[in-house]
Amino acid sequence: MTEKFRLGLFENPYVDTRKAAEIVGSKEHKAVAQQAHLESIILLTNDGVLPLPEAKIDAESGEARWLKIFLLDVDALSLYLNTDTAANPDRAIYVSADFRVLFAIDNNRFPTAVDRDAVLVKRGFRTMGMNSDRNVLPGYEVAVKTTAEGYVLELKLPFKALANERLSVLEPSVGMRVSFNLQFMDLDEATEDEVDSIGDRVSYITLFPGRPATKPGDWGFLEFK
Prior knowledge:
Distance between the termini: 57 Å
Order of helices and strands: HHHEEEEEEEEE
Radius of gyration: 20 Å
Number of helices: 3
CATH topology of the largest domain: Immunoglobulin-like
Shape: globular
Helix content: 10-25%
Number of strands: 9
Strand content: 25-35%
Number of domains: 2
CATH class of the largest domain: Mainly Beta
């Protein structure tokens, strides 16, 4: 409240859009952001870490079940995944086995989060990591390899990290299909009209177009080979 009084928000609660347009995304701010970005780059070498080993599914033990994702030059990734093969692909709302998993991959930091806010019946698996700067997924692995174009990132996510006593572990088999989508977020490639709630420009590229965050029926499919 003190800060609101100090800033005069009670007398003038509305944003001056003309002034905001002059400040947000200005050349001066872009120059400072670009310099900060350049000074934060860390060159990594591959000392035999990449590529991560291929998964070999053991039908008896259930070990080595994970999803491997390759990315190139993005700042963050949202993975949408349903771990129940019997889920209605045309569902309009999130069901218990729907997950939105977020991977931050900016400035050599790799925290993770799981967003379950849209799930009505959570079955003991709630949102975690959304306001932290740490990994919340047990068994999660990440490796980076520099290339002429920038870098290649490999993420390895165990399916058991998206399960508990009331949500079964996804057990892949050849030909199995599950609801799936990917959304890439690249802050460096945003357009003028792509601005989030705090004024930052954000660019989204969705693998299966639609509104995956609110409508699972817009997701596509992931088929195991």
